[in-house]
Amino acid sequence: MSMPAFAAALLLLLATSVSAVAETPPAGSPTTPRGTLTSLNKEGTVLLDAERKRLILKSEVCLREGLLEMLACLKQTKEHEAILRVDTRAQVVHAGLLALGAESGRPVQFMPEYKPATGQPIEIYLSWTDKDGKSHREPAQKWIRNATRKYFVEKLEQLPSDTAIGERTDLRYDEKNKELFWYGPMTAEQRDQWLKPTQNAAYRKAVQSIFDRTQLRPLNARWVFAGSGFSVDEKTGKKYYNAESGDLICVANFSTATLDLAVSSSASNDGLDYEAWTERIPPIGTPVEIELIPVFEKKPGPTSR
Hints:
Blueprint: H1 3-21, E1 38-39, E2 46-49, E3 54-61, E4 70-74, E5 82-86, H2 90-99, E6 104-106, E7 118-119, E8 121-129, E9 135-139, E10 144-146, E11 151-155, E12 172-174, E13 179-183, H3 188-195, H4 201-214, E14 223-224, E15 230-232, E16 239-241, E17 249-250, E18 260-261, E19 274-276, E20 287-294
Parallel strand pairs: 4-5
Antiparallel strand pairs: 1-2, 2-3, 3-5, 3-20, 4-17, 6-7, 8-9, 8-14, 8-20, 10-19, 11-13, 12-13, 14-18, 15-16
């Protein structure tokens, strides 16, 4: 299906959804005044705020710890690899973004060469209320950090003779592959412990690199409206939207994603780049509003003569 036809089909879906449920008053929140939103689905979980140019998804926390494939998935899909779940169809979210004037781009491409996802930049904010009744709102990137529960490897041609690394130490050396490796975060004290015995420049550089890579950092990338796509069932001829498998707001690159990061991010189980920042995420089951805000380029104003 061509992109104009694709957009038209989804806008038709949007119009149908609005006419069916526009009379349903949406629930308010500390950050969303009542009476300003239009519900786009019968579940009342996708809300259009045309005045403020944002789409609000009503979700709940389904995971607080572990490696991630996405920030938010569809309910009953990939909840073991997503922080939030939303009870909706992905098509409705796509249609809502189109209604705000956002332009979908192209999902990630892996062959014949890697090309990142493209599309309208989308800012994402998360809003919730804690057990004490205090309201919170912050960028979604703060709930996601670089993955640390994995091995970090650095090439090292030769281990210094004055450095004692054994089979039971935290820092290991693979003589066959000429690699220094470490599992999990490395503290400053551990780094200094392994640097102290030697002044060998190559070894010290490798240890410092491992230390730097294991430090906790929030996600430093933005999402784009990749737009997923349609596939056709060869047996029935029925078209279906690819993101309905669950790939709504991804942090690992998927060619089926509605929203994806515009940077390279592995989707292999043993190479996932991001994990949940547990300490920053409210308890399982906490209601969370996901704000999707398209970023539009500011048009230059008139120049004075």
